[in-house]
Amino acid sequence: MVREATSAPAIIQAQLQLNAERCQHIAKQLKAQPPRAIMMIGRGTSDHAGVFAKYLFEVECGIPVFAAAPSVAGIYKSQLQLDGCLAICISQSGKSPDIIQQAKTAKAGGARVLALVNVEDSPLAQLADEVLPLHAEPELAVAATKSYLASLSALCQLCAYWQSGHQSAALLAALDTLPTAMEKAQQQPPQLKADDLKSVKNCIVLGRGFGYAIAREIALKLKEVLGIHAEAFSSAEFLHGPVTLAERELCVIDVNIDDESGPAHQQQMQAIAARGAKLLPLQAADASHARLQPLVLMQRFYLDVEHAARQLDLDPDAPPGLNKVTETH
Hints:
The protein has 329 residues and is α/β, with parallel strands linked by helices.
């Protein structure tokens, strides 16, 4: 896990170069025929990348984004009417049966299918109208790291080419500096330590906007790698009822992204801390663009959670009861 997480900057640097022409080609099509909506298809870590995509494409492109429910196609055999929509499928392996079925159903419903996959000759890649490779190389650790970060960078690159103007140019330029920012994050002191977590059985992960998008992935890794029951919320949503948990000396991981959501999130975290919650803050260092802060933060987090696992005598590479590829139907 640590080797794969540490390789992410080099992976992303190569990916941005290898995918530039293909991203421009896909972006040209999207400009010519803008989708009326985007459906995100994925499970687990890939589904969490889809939450990031929701904020990215809604904020930067103004296109509504919604998550697919794979059971609608796989279990209930229902056909959605998706004329004029774009279906973006994210999968490391490209072979989970329910994801493939959802992609087939989306295509049959009129959607154009774009696959972000790490295995370019996978069944999902063969089905898709367009493929954007992750170029993350084989990922062996059960807990995904580099493939998740590569999914986010691919989404950002596509968004930057799709849109035009100053904001798009700024994001594109910042992507060139992203690998260096991630390497710097690897050298930063840990933000999350074994001592912080050794007695924790339950915790909440809170973020706002893009911070909430990665909070979902952070909560999953706490469950997968450390065996901690963790649940992610928007910091705003947490105040609508679940905040009563803070009265019980709850451990809260505070995912702080310094973007438009920052002031509101910080105000909400102050209210939660005042109720007695124990806050463990996470933040990005040296990201040159607000939309890339989540990637830099996750780079540091992956190393921290892997190290904490080893300090707690857990195996971060092979958590009990999990397989690398989960094939649900």
